[in-house]
Write a structure and sequence with these properties.
The complex is a heterodimer of chains A (322) and B (308). Chain A is mostly helical. Chain A has one domain: Orthogonal Bundle (MetI-like fold), CATH 1.10.3720. Chain A contains 12 helices and no strands. Chain A is globular. Chain B is an all-alpha fold and 308 residues long. Chain B has one domain: MetI-like fold (Orthogonal Bundle), CATH 1.10.3720.10. The radius of gyration of chain B is 23 Å and the shape is elongated.
Chain lengths: 322, 308
């Protein structure tokens, strides 16, 4: 049954999360100078004050104790306080998280909407002009650095043609209401979503095509065609169903990639999301915030892997849950 | 990729196989040459590598020389890629920057290769508990949020050449480890290994001289594709302003510096050329990787449905 399988996979994810948390924690400890290094460089801070800060943040405790304290805090919702702003980490992150998740979700939806039809069409018309063109574009898309693509889009659409706004999520000069507000938001999102979706779309289109080609060559598809079913039914229902199994897995594994890719997209378009927060915190060595974001990203990776496994099992009855 | 292989098949069909036995290397090269895009990729990458090594000595401009009189020039014959706001020749910077980007990527892949081969060989050859433990470590590293970890390591330790190399390598060795492990698992049961053991060859020698050479094909493909990945990671890092610091040039760093010039002043050449270099290099590397994959293991072509 599916239920126990899901539970067992979730239990397997726990040691994985432990491993990740230990590595992340140790990585931060390895940094030369420690968390207060940037503060120590400032002459205005006396040694006594540093001592007090160290004690305040629990930095004098042995490492395992620090780790357990941190882990305990994670579970109970106390994610620490940002060294930079003094705000609770959980609050800092939850302010930014929706923006990044929305960007990720939109880009994911866009890549599915483009890649699936393109991949299917390319596979059903193998060696056609469309097939060569889409395959060529996929190769190009995979090799395109997203920041370069973004920069060139900005040059064309913002500088040359002045069609789309170059930064942020809303028009800061003017308050729009109703339809104008929706339009304002849309124009701000077109380029960031396009940039973020590019690589995922290119990758997915290739997987959909390869997966369809494999299925279309099989006997049961020929049988379905031979029995006089319309081509549309054969491709979408008979072949499509089986071709979707590997595609779903790959698609799910792309979600964390998109989430990480948002760092770059947010930087190009000056969008205040998690990625921008991460880069900013890395520069300031704001450890608690960095740890918090890493934990969220790692949990996202583990969850999407889990979902991919479960959907895989649901779509392919040959996978046993034993 | 299946696309290119299929396109190459008509050529294969008309090609009568020779009876003469060929060495593996010659056979691989013969297969590789059929993959036209891979050959083009190899030519381009070779050209770029030579250009970034000798180019900076050949062109008459210093990549770091600041000259207000030549600031913000659009591409001309003298400055084929234009100049930046400090009057530095962009071609000179693209060449010297390519040197850094390619060197970091090559070094990162090399380090990842060494770690991956070592872990995979130990896990596959020893089996049992060491294998299990090492594969769990691999799982953990796969689940790490890649780009975030690279940013973190480099931001915390400082953007030196070796920090960036190690940070990229830390996230790139797992694929090699898995490939080497699975090769070792099957190869260690083979008769020739058995024979070597029977005549008293030591474990270390069996691993290094008998198994490893046979396990290398998939690793070479993974390493080639790894170079493309490393170039993209290094460029992203530099673009975020966290990689090599100015006045040092890298392709990603040049794009980062060009941002406002491109967007508010419309100096397209500042952004176009460094990005084009990344694009062409990554594309060529991917083609080479695909060509190698088809040449080394014809069965693997097109079969990309499984889990990564």
């Amino acid at each position: 049954m599916v239920g126990p399988y899901v539970v067992r996979r979730m239990l397997q994810a726990i040691p994985l999360l432990f491993g990740i948390s230990i590595i992340i924690f140790l990585m931060l400890q390895m940094a030369p100078g420690g968390p207060l290094a940037s503060g120590e460089a400032q002459a205005a801070i006396t040694p006594e004050k540093i001592e007090r800060l160290r004690a305040h943040y629990g930095l004098d405790d042995p490492l395992p104790i620090q780790y357990l304290n941190w882990l305990g805090g994670l579970v109970t919702g106390d994610w620490g306080v940002s060294y930079d702003t003094g705000q609770p980490v959980l609050q800092v992150i939850t302010e930014r998280l929706p923006t990044t998740l929305a960007l990720t979700g939109l880009a994911f939806a866009v890549s599915l909407l483009i890649a699936i039809p393109v991949g299917i069409l390319a596979a059903t018309r193998q060696y056609s002009v469309f097939d060569y063109a889409s395959t060529g574009l996929s190769f190009a898309g995979i090799a395109t650095p997203s920041f370069w693509f973004g920069l060139m889009l900005l040059y064309l659409f913002s500088f040359q043609w002045d069609l789309l706004p170059s930064a942020g999520l809303t028009d800061l000069r003017e308050d729009h209401v109703g339809f104008a507000a929706v339009w304002d938001r849309t124009t701000h999102l077109i380029m960031p979503v396009a940039v973020l979706a590019l690589i995922a779309t290119a990758n997915l289109a290739r997987y959909v095509r390869a997966s369809m080609l494999e299925v279309l060559g099989q006997d049961y598809v020929r049988t379905a065609r031979g029995s006089g079913l319309p081509e549309r039914t054969v491709i979408l229902q008979h072949a499509g169903k089986n071709a979707s199994v590997p595609v779903v897995t790959i698609a799910m594994l792309m979600v964390p990639e998109l989430f990480l890719g948002a760092v770059i997209t947010e930087t190009i378009f000056s969008i205040p999301g998690m990625g921008a927060l991460f880069v900013h915190s890395a520069e300031l060595r704001d450890y608690p915030v960095l740890l918090g974001i890493l934990v969220i990203a790692a949990v996202l990776v583990v969850i999407t892997n889990l979902v991919a496994d479960v959907i895989y099992g649901l779509l392919d009855p040959r996978i046993s849950y034993e | 990729m299946s696309e290119v292989r299929e396109a190459a098949e008509p050529v294969a069909a008309g090609d009568v196989p020779e009876e003469k036995a060929r060495s593996l290397r010659a056979e691989t090269w013969r297969q590789f040459r059929r993959h036209r895009l891979a050959v083009v990729g190899l030519a381009v990458l070779t050209l770029f590598t030579v250009a970034v090594i000798v180019g900076p000595w050949l062109i008459p401009f210093d990549p770091y020389y600041i000259d207000a009189r030549t600031a913000n020039l659009a591409p001309t014959l003298t400055h084929p890629m234009g100049t930046d706001e400090l009057g530095r020749d962009q071609l000179a910077r693209v060449l010297i920057g390519g040197r850094l980007t390619l060197a970091v990527s090559a070094a990162a892949v090399l380090v990842a290769l060494i770690v991956g081969v070592a872990v995979g060989a130990v896990a596959g050859y020893a089996g049992g508990f060491p294998d299990n433990a090492l594969m769990r470590v691999v799982d953990v590293f796969y689940a790490l949020p890649g780009l975030f970890i690279v940013i973190l390591l480099v931001a915390l330790i400082g953007p030196t050449f070796w920090t960036i190399v190690i940070a990229i390598a830390v996230l790139s060795w797992m694929n090699t480890a898995r490939l080497v492990r699975s090769s070792f698992l099957s190869l260690k049961e083979k008769e020739f290994v058995e024979a070597a053991r029977t005549v008293g060859v030591s474990d270390a020698r069996i691993v290094l001289r008998h198994i490893l050479p046979n396990a290398f094909s998939p690793v070479i493909v993974a390493a080639t594709l790894g170079v493309a990945n490393a170039i993209l990671i290094e460029s992203s890092l530099s673009f975020l302003g966290l990689g090599f610091q100015p006045p040092e040039a890298t392709w990603g760093g040049m794009l980062s510096e060009s941002k406002s010039a491109v967007i508010s002043l419309g100096q397209w050449w500042r952004g176009l050329f460094p990005g084009l270099m990344i694009f062409i290099t990554v594309l060529s590397t991917n083609f080479i990787g695909d060509g190698l994959r088809d040449a080394l293991d014809p069965r693997s072509a097109g079969n990309k449905g499984g889990r990564a």
